[in-house]
Specification:
Elements (H helix, E strand, L loop, with lengths): L1 H5 L3 H52 L5 H16 L1 H12 L11
């Protein structure tokens, strides 16, 4: 019986092999996870570089507005945006029949 205790049982060997298999699978899964993260980082950097290059090209292609033209456009847009409610209300009143004021005789 003393010899039986010193020798590993069959179940212990099976448990050990199962633990080793799980450790290998875990390492492989972790390596795949890290590789996926690195690939995502590389793709993100590539897309950012493309976006920045596109924005730079669009900025260079866009003509610079003149200050005089820009200020007159800004002034006209301020006037137009200052009375949007009145402008919207005017067509409604114009559509209705206008009332005639009674003639006053002196």
């Amino acid at each position: 019986m003393a010899q039986d205790r010193k020798q590993p049982s069959a179940q212990a060997g099976i448990r050990f092999e199962k633990a080793q298999k799980q450790a290998r699978e875990g390492e492989q899964a972790w390596a795949e996870y890290e590789a996926s993260g690195r690939a995502a980082d590389i793709n993100r950097a590539r897309l950012k570089a493309l976006r920045l290059a596109k924005e730079a090209a669009e900025k260079e292609a866009e003509p610079a507005p003149k200050k005089a033209a820009a200020s007159s456009k800004a002034a006209s847009s301020k006037k137009a945006s200052a009375t949007p409610k009145k402008a919207a209300a005017a067509p409604k009143k114009a559509a209705a029949a206008p009332k005639k004021a009674p003639d006053k005789k002196p």
